[in-house]
Write a structure and sequence with these properties.
There is one protein chain. This protein is an alpha+beta fold. The chain has 2 domains: 30-108, Ubiquitin-like (UB roll), CATH 3.10.20; 137-276, Cytidine Deaminase, domain 2, CATH 3.40.140.10. 28% of the residues lie in helices and 32% in strands. It has a 6-stranded mixed beta sheet, sandwiched between helices. A hairpin with a 2-residue loop joins strand 13 (262-268) and strand 14. The chain is globular and about 60 Å long.
Length: 280
């Protein structure tokens, strides 16, 4: 596990009849500024609080799921820029900066109505309607354990979200952790996007791993609740199933039903609820 993701801190532990002073391990939280450069222009488009690590994937995934770029070929280079907390993405194509204002509704406290939010998703680079994937109940039941097994930083700290992408058979294609659930999703989607298996307006393609060629990604599993923003990211990535350990929101359900996403909540303890779509 990369040491940049965790850090020791002094702690006083109070229990029945005892007080001890020792050391605890916590998740690191630091700001990341994402800058974009294209055709002589440069713009700071986001500052997000994230856990360091996989910053390239985070930046690429954010640009893709916000509809600002369409394919991995749009990216010329990604690198830290004068600081480990600033990352600069150089693009081969121009971006529509008017999209930046339209897309920054992705917090639950923004006060934007549901209709406006869903209308914005409809124009996200021609977001595809995910195909109705038939995933077996047995595969869904295995996902929480598979997610937990690969969350090394969470096991050390208890303070990080996990997001993983699986095939329809439950094969793990990628997993990322972050203190922010949106960042964890952007990181894992960004890793597949940079590998060429995702592009706007197209269904995901097969993924090449160390073991060889795998079927395309079909399931996004998250260790958090299923918010509107996470459904939005699954739609743009063309992933037809979003499974969450926690509950979905009403707007997440509405969006999933409109765009053909299978939305599962409370996926844990050998049970789950189906809020949109079907499971085989």
């Amino acid at each position: 596990m990369p040491e940049e993701r965790i850090a020791p801190v002094a702690v006083t532990r109070v229990a029945a009849g005892s007080v001890t002073r020792n050391e605890d391990v916590l998740a690191v939280e630091e700001p990341l500024e994402i800058r974009v450069a294209w055709e002589g222009h440069e713009k700071n488009i986001s500052v997000t609080m994230r856990t360091p690590g996989d910053d390239d994937d985070l930046a690429a995934g954010f640009l893709f799921t916000e509809g600002l770029i369409r394919s991995a070929e749009d990216i010329e280079s990604i690198r830290h820029w004068g600081s480990p907390n600033v990352i600069r993405v150089s693009l081969r194509v121009p971006i529509d900066t008017s999209k930046l204002d339209r897309h920054f509704y992705t917090t639950s406290s923004c006060g934007v109505c549901g209709k406006t939010s869903i209308d914005a998703v409809r124009v996200l680079s021609g977001a595809p309607r995910p195909s109705a994937a038939q995933i077996s109940k047995e595969v869904i039941h295995r996902l929480p354990k598979l997610l937990e097994q690969h969350q090394s930083a969470f096991r050390a700290t208890g303070g990080l979200h996990g997001a993983a992408v699986f095939t329809s058979a439950g094969e793990l294609l990628g997993l990322r952790e972050d203190i922010g659930r949106h960042n964890a999703v952007d990181k894992v989607i960004g890793s597949l996007f940079r590998g060429g298996s995702m592009s706007a307006g197209q269904p995901p393609s097969a993924v090449w791993t160390a073991e060889g060629r795998c079927p395309p990604p079909e399931i996004l599993m998250v260790s958090s609740r299923a918010s509107f923003e996470l459904v939005q990211k699954a739609i743009v990535a063309g992933i037809p199933v979003l499974a969450s350990v926690g509950a979905p929101s009403t707007l997440a359900v509405e969006l999933a039903r409109e765009f053909g996403v299978t939305l599962l909540g409370f996926v844990r303890d050998s049970r789950f609820n189906i809020y949109a779509g079907e499971v085989g």
